[in-house]
Design a protein that fits this description.
The structure is a homotetramer of 335-residue chains. Helices cover 41% and strands 17% of the residues of chain A. The first copy, chain A, has 2 domains: 171 residues, Rossmann fold (3-Layer(aba) Sandwich), CATH 3.40.50; 116 residues, 3-Layer(aba) Sandwich (Rossmann fold). Chain A has 335 residues and is of the alpha/beta class. Chains A, B, C, D: It catalyses: beta-D-fructose 6-phosphate + ATP = beta-D-fructose 1,6-bisphosphate + ADP + H(+).
Chain lengths: 335, 335, 335, 335
């Protein structure tokens, strides 16, 4: 249960925009819904939805939203505002166009839901053009500094866990070893949580060195304890696209016969979990409250069970660390 | 992501017992698994499973467990140790039998997973017989003081959310109002989280007064805004078993034609969510660490994103409060 | 895999209407989608959606549909055309209004998706006003004569099966007996399929006499075989709304302590199963083909693995029989 | 609802063996359960489970089963008897060992659940050693001649459909084209059913020529109709392991930017659907009835909604054909 700060409204905005950007994550829709409704219920006159992320800001693909236009989206995966990559947003002249589009419609502030690239864009827009921005962490990877949780992470973990539960049926029936690659970009948050949740025999993440020799010992130990030759190794996609296949080759050289499963894009979508809907609803409401309390250039996230604000500058500069203790639990519990 | 304390082992136990008691909750099995494995990996020589809660303690229904005996249970609902009510445990002479059974097998400490009744039993056993006990919060209701989260809550919320998503299909197709009763004993934690997650039109909980007139206005407003006459009202079961039906009767008297759905026992079981498996695995590991660090008569729970210890005395005496701010968000977002 | 008849188009229709009526069932949306697209792809110029069943026909709540207007509905529960009861449709003068509304928009034929009441309405409209109609069996109850399967049955069974799997976790953990009431109106098709699929200890259906004494023997036998005192009894709702509670009372009088779970409305909605989407897509396509081949006053259903046409007259007059052999398998397999 | 033949018991067997072989499929467990219970309830004295398919027959890895040993497996994916490939079974001297192992335990007949390779093994064993065998079609691929359905097909379709529903969220949010590869060995049954159920823009199967030019036109048409540039192309794995990647390359050359998702092993496991549990329960029961009626060297399958027997010889020699009409519906409905 999230603790929510008490903030006093100090500012008034006539019109606010919302934008989802970067890879979609499940929970963006309940976030959009709560921003729209919280804003309209707090006296904001108009809420605009920017379509296709920063691309829509540049191409002026912007529509008016109402309380009704976000009816029945709380349970939907993806983002009704659509998302897109917009590499040209790194060009200042392109950002000028975006700022003009906002101003021509009277949009005075912007809430951006996305990952670190999206939040960087928000920060620069704020710095350059003085547009008040609030960021929300929307990514399945949970790799945003300053927040313990991100919108979409819990759903992605549940999806991966259910998929691996299925794979385990086959692994146990055939007494086979499976290498299952999960998403997570350069971080091992998904892999660690999924590995613990699935009782994986090993978890491989970019953050911590992985000892192949150790894996072989673990597998041999399990075998001698009668825990069978079936097993699941969860591998974070990481920076090295060939890691999973190379690992499989190494295991084959050791006499194992591992199968590979790349979970891929099934982890992104799907109806958001209860947790992600709750998180998104609370963060969306809080985003509006922070905005009306005069905050800007911040991300609204979760830390130690409470909703907090974090300067976007810090979000951009820091790197989120995967707790070693947590990672070690995965190793401890398969024994 | 949970933060886990660093504890130094100070004590040695030859044999430890585990017991699940009270209503089963999803995640008890990964908790059992992590306690067994963490204990055996930390030098505890024997781990015993007590079957059927305190009843098994009294009837000496106790079996030796091994790392292998908890293989492939991480994904299973319910509790492999089974559970039962044991009203006779309130009799001191019955507790004497329990203590003798533990001592006759050389069981030196006990980890109890359950709700407040179960934790009360553990506290008394510790006080009376000097048996070191560690409690873990295992209940779908999330109503245990001293911990922000309980094993089984997240899964129960997800199950209720999925069920209500289905009901909403019918509610929208027929433009009907549904009263959906969720579990939660005397508290509204499940109802509030589910209500927010499902975009319910109203949430009724035991903690906060409910204004029937207000509900009528809300329904009328929605109607006039064109949000349709379909809707979901989430009702916590609470102390009054007739509340949901009485509410339906009141709404009928106002010209509405509400349908009732009592979600009931489907909320308890089912494969635990990724979150609950993670929580249970971390709490189980921590329970062993606290025990070996010399702690006793405590519950190991979660507070502000960290694993913490709480005196069982406090757990028994206090009442957990449902955050008003959170509850208000449910009301805010349906508008 | 369904076998689909080869039909030659013999007729041309400029405009066709679609209507969903009665209790919603999961798969109505893919049926709507396939009717719209099959019609437009077969030369029908306009497809109209009638909203709220026969009520919309009477109140002229009719909208033009396009291929695009049924995009992304294949996975949605309920019916985008909405449904309603319309008791006044039994009045001939009301049906005259309906017929005039169709004719004033140039709608020359109607496809009706629904249960027996809905198909009766279609038949009378056809008989009285000469409007060509094709019916599709859309009900979770699978109680429509002339077809082995109905749109929504498979999804409802899966939902009930998943719910009972959850309940079984609790039943086994607490060694309790559960009475689970499933839908099915006056028939036991859902109960029988669910009972077999869940390994229920007993299935109670309206079609076959139920021997309470036999149940007591079964429970005693299971107990003596060491199969435990937990168990699931699946009860079809049937005509007697008190049956489940009365059964529970009888069991209590025998010293059992059964719990009751009424699955209720969660069985209706939810994303349609693969089977129901396939069935709905094929039936919808076939409905258009039968219409264009000159058929009318028929239901398009499934018999012996093939898509068939059945006179609506027969659908209305007959009663579908629950195969005794199938019912007996449920009893056989719990032993 | 399956129609089940009436067969009179003509033979008596003291002991019967069960074996699952080849790739596991969801529903093998309810099949095992129903064979064990139907046999014991029909007067067979002993039922033996052969572990690890034909490998266990050769290595004498055979255990006695009881009604209780199949309790609570009806809902489990995979096979509790485990499965394995056994290439050495093609050696007659190895089959001699298998036959001796059966005879030394007094096992007089064998029920084999698996795909075509497994059923071929059963046929040869019967021919060579006169051992009565009954085969059941257990494979997710639904590619067994003589039966319209196989144990595991429906569950695999549902799993793939749910996965693609998730992918569609991302496809629509990002307006991207996805190539999703599903299982099915050399046949397109899974791909076709999944393609129709998901409203795929195109289905590529080994049975029917695929016109790349046609796909480009379809995508262009959809674009011009405003149905967006997002889309799902379902590709059966087929004989050509590079097909999906080659298709992606061709689409890239045309200016598209498709993403690839290989669903892989998640399609095999998971709790069986209601349909597969029902099918497996009925086929398992029928297998025992056919055996006791004196049948041998047959597969018990489903044809035109009825349970039927098919000579194993025919199963081995024929090739199951994917209905062209059904395949065409997939193409028809995306328009």
């Amino acid at each position: 249960m999230l603790s929510i700060p008490d903030l006093k409204p100090e500012k008034h905005y006539n019109a606010v925009g919302i934008l989802t950007s970067g890879g979609d994550s499940s929970g963006m829709n309940p976030a959009i819904r709560s921003i729209v409704r919280a804003a309209l219920n707090s006296g904001v006159k108009q809420v605009f939805g920017v379509r296709r992320g920063y691309q829509g800001l540049v191409s002026d693909d912007i529509t008016l939203m109402s309380s009704r236009s976000v009816t029945n989206i709380v349970q939907k995966g993806g983002t009704v505002l659509k998302s897109a990559r917009c590499p040209e947003f790194s060009d200042p002249s392109v950002r000028d166009v975006a700022a003009r589009n906002l101003s021509s419609r009277g949009i005075e502030a912007l809430v951006v839901i996305g990952g670190d690239g999206s939040l960087t864009g928000a920060h620069i827009l704020c710095q350059e053009h003085g547009i008040p921005v609030i960021g929300l962490p929307g990514t399945i990877d949970n790799d945003i500094p300053g927040t313990d949780d991100t919108i979409g992470f819990d759903t992605a973990v549940n999806t991966a866990v259910e998929a691996i539960d299925r794979i385990r049926d086959t692994a146990r029936s055939h007494e086979r070893l499976f290498l299952v690659e999960v998403m997570g970009r350069n971080s091992g948050f998904i892999a660690t949580q999924v590995g613990i949740a699935c009782g994986a025999e090993m978890v491989v993440v970019p953050e911590y060195a992985f000892d192949f020799h150790d894996l072989c010992i673990t597998l041999a130990e399990r075998h001698s304890k009668g825990q069978g030759s079936s097993g699941i190794i969860v591998v974070a996609e990481g920076r090295d696209p060939d890691l999973t296949h190379r690992l499989a080759a190494q295991l084959k050289a050791q006499g194992q016969d591992p199968k590979i499963s790349i979970l891929g894009h099934i982890q992104r979508g799907g109806s958001p979990s209860g947790h992600d809907r709750m998180l998104a609803s609370c963060l969306g409401t809080a985003a509006v409250e922070y905005l009306l309390a005069g905050y800007s250039d911040i991300m609204v996230g979760v830390h130690k069970g409470a909703i907090v604000d974090v300067p976007l500058q810090r979000v951009i500069e820091e790197k989120k660390v995967l707790d070693r203790k947590l990672f070690d639990i995965a190793a401890l519990l398969h024994k």
